[in-house]
């Protein structure tokens, strides 16, 4: 018989140590997993804000432009039709002149040709100037101070996106021009400041990243959300009331229930195919219209709203219904007068969350054509807001991400910040509503 | 009268009905509401709904049916040409253009019905551009269409307004003190609720039907054998495209697999930690933070893949990168999309698993701990095996999400369809191809476009199957412990 192994409660044996080590390791795995998840979140947010905040700043060039009568209105008649005949070429000369004046004024010497100097301005500068003159013909002959957008390369140079190394093969800007930019920055002619037109403005062609803005796409999203709200909320609530309060337990309601939970998991792109086939090809609704986008998103959001509405109807205790029925209300009255008002905060919360989901959805919008064009004009009425081609915030971001010029990437990240700001606001409202009105029975 | 004004008129009539119904009910009761069966407001809503619902129903049906009928008539009138759809779109355009011209005063109503010489210029002048010269056939068909439309609109107005008047009079005549208005109104409301509930079914039917029809068209143009069993995806415009789903399916599954390899361990361990170890405070902070990841739109993840993770991987594995290897040639790759999709799925897996682990009865844990097992041994040998079916269900749900995900792969995965085992290669997926086939300029009746519907149907069936299995497993599992 061998000696019994001497053990002590105070010293751990090897096996216990091993087991305890395994315990600690396991715990660490868990912590590491959470750490990894949170690290991803931080990485994502840092990337978004690091890349996107720049879009809210833009470089501007301030010039005194002489609106020469000899160029714009030779006879001095101030005849709008004749003034309109002067094309942007004519204005480009004025811009070169203004640029030269600015250089002379600040005592900057530059061997660059006038054309190269004017290339520091955005390609839309001449058109902007022309629009100003057409709407203010009385200013012709005066010298007017103007703030133009700088070319996106200049903007990128001030934001450190464009460097002297990176422009080696770039045809649209060269090192001498950057020297000139440095001097103009020192002279205060070129300045970087907050750019409101990124938030309010329209998309621009792929030659002018500096002029592109989110505003019109925001209107598109707004009208889509209007459609979703007007359709998904009443239909979703009505469907939930029926299923939760009135439906008899039989195979038909079973099918509807299974159907709704499965619809919630159908890939969003499938709803896009449905929208294309039914709304556009069959019903001939206009392509790219927020109305169609709204209809598609309504179908997508319905299951979310139905599921959350049913949950909040279910949380109203039966005693409320019984009390209403007991004092002589009909079933319908007990639901509409008592249950529904008590469930309203929950329904509202679910609706806002559903809307937030719909706001960020992109894939179905690609299929119904809300990309690939430049939505340049803000809609001027509700009908045109619903029926005229427009983009939506996520579709606009996708559009920018697909363009070749890296200057658009900054816009795309900036667009994401705007989109996230909306989503965070909506979700915060939903959470606050829940906190404020949540009732435990 | 346009449909808009017709709707407004119907609304006004129904509002009048509401007012008249109330007045009538009080009149028949001799001013004493207690003599009525229902409250006066029910009589009022009875009349209002009685006007509103049938009129709007007729109006909507008319709006859909009339263009279809007229177009069919015009098609028969033309009936000769080889490309009916093209000619019909011309006819529709000319007819619409004539309407615009009359509205802007470029043509008078009588001129619009007579033969017009310089039609293109006239319509061009009001902003309707016509492609080719308009043949007399097309013009007369368009004019016929317009005449019919005008006649139809007149009929519509008479029909709807007549119906409104009829229902208004009928509704008012029904009102007596004994009439059970509340019951009638509640029956109507119930019918509306049922209609709303069946819309979910209608959506599903719409999805399935729209895809089945176009898929049938596709299989009429392209052999189904090539679609399901071919090995190459090579659409072109010469008409001998090879459109096989297998390479796309491979890309889809590969990317989903990588996404699951990222999200399942992280999500599962996070769920275990949150439900078994973490105190209420940690849980209250970490869980909502993780769930932010689920609320971020997929376009953001797509951009993150394209502009951040892709270049990061390229700098590591590409030529001149950190490792000094040349395994990767572009930023878009299976790994790029897979990693980012994995990040997206972490909260999905973790919150589903969290629910499931929490559903394991405490008694099982207590039993194991009481026998001397450590906490991790309890989790590994008791809790996880008990929760396994539910966790499998959660993973299947995550897989169905991954398969149907679009924006991440559109931006991050590339566009080359091929069978390759290298995760640093660009590959393409079913959803990517759906987007590119349907957003291109292709003719809508060509197999290259229609294939998108076959792909969509496959995707729908695939995700639906996964979901049904997953939901079944999860439900079965829940029942076990309830």
From TrEMBL, chain A:
Name used for this protein in its record: Phosphate transport system permease protein PstA
Name of the gene: pstA_1
Any single GO CC term annotated in Swiss-Prot or TrEMBL for this entry: plasma membrane
Record membrane topology: Multi-pass membrane protein
Taxonomic path: Bacteria, Pseudomonadati, Pseudomonadota, Alphaproteobacteria, Rhodobacterales
A GO molecular-function annotation: phosphate transmembrane transporter activity
Keyword Cell cycle: no
A biological process term (GO) from this entry: phosphate ion transmembrane transport
Predominant cellular place of this UniProt entry's protein: membrane
Similarity comment: family membership: Belongs to the binding-protein-dependent transport system permease family. CysTW subfamily.
Automatic annotation (TrEMBL), chain B:
UniProt superkingdom: Bacteria
Subcellular location: Cell inner membrane; Cell membrane
Domain ABC transmembrane type-1 stretches: 249-470
Predominant place of localization: membrane
Topological category with respect to the lipid bilayer: Multi-pass membrane protein
Keyword Transmembrane: yes
Signal sequence region: none
Record keywords: Cell inner membrane, Cell membrane, Membrane, Phosphate transport, Transmembrane, Transmembrane helix, Transport
One Pfam family here: BPD_transp_1
Entry GO MF terms: phosphate transmembrane transporter activity
Transmembrane segments: 44-65, 155-176, 188-213, 248-272, 292-315, 327-349, 450-474
One example of a Gene Ontology biological process annotation: phosphate ion transport
Gene Ontology cellular-component annotations: plasma membrane
Function: Part of the binding-protein-dependent transport system for phosphate; probably responsible for the translocation of the substrate across the membrane.
Family per similarity comment: Belongs to the binding-protein-dependent transport system permease family. CysTW subfamily.
NCBIfam families attached to this UniProt entry: phosphate_pstC
Protein name: Phosphate transport system permease protein
Species of origin: Planktotalea frisia
Gene name linked to the record: pstC_1
């Amino acid at each position: 018989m061998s000696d019994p192994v001497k053990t002590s409660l105070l010293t751990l044996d090897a096996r216990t140590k091993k087991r305890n080590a395994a315990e600690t390791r396991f715990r660490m795995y868990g912590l590491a997993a959470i750490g990894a998840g949170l690290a991803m979140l931080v990485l994502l947010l840092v990337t978004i804000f690091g890349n996107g905040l720049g879009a809210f700043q833009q470089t501007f060039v301030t010039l005194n432009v002489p609106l020469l009568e000899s160029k714009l209105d030779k006879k001095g008649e101030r005849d709008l039709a004749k003034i309109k005949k002067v094309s942007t070429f004519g204005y480009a000369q004025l811009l070169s002149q203004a640029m030269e004046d600015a250089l002379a004024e600040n005592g900057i010497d530059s061997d660059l040709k006038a054309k190269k100097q004017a290339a520091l301005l955005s390609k839309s500068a001449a058109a902007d100037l022309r629009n100003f003159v057409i709407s203010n013909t009385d200013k012709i002959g005066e010298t007017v101070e103007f703030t133009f957008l700088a070319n996106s390369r200049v903007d990128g140079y001030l934001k450190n996106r464009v460097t002297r190394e990176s422009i080696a093969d770039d045809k649209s800007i060269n090192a001498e021009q950057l020297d000139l930019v440095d001097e103009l920055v020192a002279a205060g002619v070129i300045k970087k400041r907050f750019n409101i037109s990124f938030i309010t403005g329209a998309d621009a062609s792929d030659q002018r990243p500096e002029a592109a803005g989110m505003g019109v796409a925001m209107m598109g999203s707004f009208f889509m959300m209007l459609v979703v709200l007007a359709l998904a909320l009443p239909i979703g609530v009505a469907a939930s009331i029926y299923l939760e309060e009135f439906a008899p337990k039989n195979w038909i309601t079973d099918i509807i229930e299974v159907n709704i939970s499965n619809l919630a998991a159908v890939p969003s792109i499938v709803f896009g195919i449905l929208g294309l086939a039914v709304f556009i090809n069959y019903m001939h609704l206009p392509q790219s219209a927020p109305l169609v986008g709204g209809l598609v998103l309504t179908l997508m959001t319905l299951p979310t709203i139905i599921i959350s509405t049913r949950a909040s109807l279910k949380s109203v205790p039966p005693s409320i219904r019984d009390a209403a029925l007991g004092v002589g209300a009909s079933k319908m009255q007990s639901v509409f007068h008592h249950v529904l008002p008590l469930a309203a905060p929950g329904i509202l919360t679910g609706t806002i969350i559903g809307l937030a989901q719909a706001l960020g959805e992109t894939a179905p919008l690609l299929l119904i054509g809300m990309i690939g064009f430049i939505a340049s004009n803000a809609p001027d009425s509700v009908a045109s807001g619903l029926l005229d081609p427009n983009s939506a915030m996520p579709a606009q971001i996708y559009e920018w991400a697909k363009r070749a010029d890296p200057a658009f990437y900054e816009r795309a990240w900036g667009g994401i910040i705007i989109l996230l700001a909306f989503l965070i606001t909506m979700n915060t409202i939903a959470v606050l509503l829940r906190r404020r009105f949540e009732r435990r029975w | 009268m346009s449909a808009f004004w017709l709707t407004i008129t119907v609304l006004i009539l129904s509002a009048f009905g509401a007012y008249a119904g109330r007045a009538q009910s009080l009149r028949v009761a001799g001013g004493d509401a207690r003599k009525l069966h229902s409250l006066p407001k029910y009589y009022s809503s009875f009349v209002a709904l009685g006007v509103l619902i049938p009129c709007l129903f007729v109006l909507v049906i008319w709006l859909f049916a009339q263009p279809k009928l007229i177009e069919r008539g015009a098609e028969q009138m033309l009936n000769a040409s080889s490309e009916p759809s093209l000619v019909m779109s011309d006819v529709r355009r000319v007819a619409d253009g004539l309407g615009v011209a009359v509205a802007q005063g470029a043509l008078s109503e009588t001129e619009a019905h007579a033969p017009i010489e310089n039609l293109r210029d006239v319509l061009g002048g009001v902003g309707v551009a016509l492609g080719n010269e308009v043949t007399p056939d097309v013009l007369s068909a368009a004019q016929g269409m317009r005449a019919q439309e005008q006649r139809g609109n007149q009929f519509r107005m008479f029909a709807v307004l007549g119906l409104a008047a009829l229902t208004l009079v009928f509704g008012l005549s029904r009102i007596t003190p004994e009439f059970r208005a509340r019951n009638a109104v509640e029956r109507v409301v119930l019918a509306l609720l049922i209609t709303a509930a069946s819309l979910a079914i209608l959506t599903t039917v719409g999805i399935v039907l729209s895809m089945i029809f176009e898929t049938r068209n596709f299989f009429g143009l392209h052999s189904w054998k090539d679609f399901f069993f071919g090995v190459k995806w090579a659409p072109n415009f010469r008409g001998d495209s090879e459109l096989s789903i297998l390479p796309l399916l491979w890309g889809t599954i590969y990317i989903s697999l990588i996404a699951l390899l990222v999200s399942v361990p992280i999500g599962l361990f996070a769920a275990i930690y949150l439900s078994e170890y973490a105190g209420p405070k940690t849980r209250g902070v970490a869980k909502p933070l993780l769930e932010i990841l689920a609320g971020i739109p997929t376009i953001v993840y797509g951009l993150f893949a394209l502009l951040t993770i892709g270049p990061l991987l390229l700098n590591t594995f590409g030529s001149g990168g950190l490792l000094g290897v040349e395994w990767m040639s572009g930023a878009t790759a299976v790994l790029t999309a897979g990693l980012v999709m994995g990040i997206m799925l972490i909260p999905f897996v973790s919150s589903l698993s969290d629910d499931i682990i929490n559903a394991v009865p405490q008694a099982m844990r207590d039993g194991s701990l009481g026998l001397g097992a450590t906490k991790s041994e309890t989790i590994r040998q008791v809790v996880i095996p008990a929760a396994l079916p539910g966790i499998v269900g959660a993973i299947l749900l995550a897989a169905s999400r991954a398969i149907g995900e679009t924006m991440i792969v559109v931006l991050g995965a590339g566009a080359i369809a091929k069978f390759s085992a290298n995760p640093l290669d660009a590959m393409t997926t079913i959803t990517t191809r759906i987007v590119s086939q349907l957003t291109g300029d292709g003719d809508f009746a060509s197999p290259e476009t229609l294939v998108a519907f076959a792909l969509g149907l496959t995707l729908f069936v695939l995700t639906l199957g996964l979901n049904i299995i997953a939901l079944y497993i999860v439900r079965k599992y829940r029942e076990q412990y309830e």
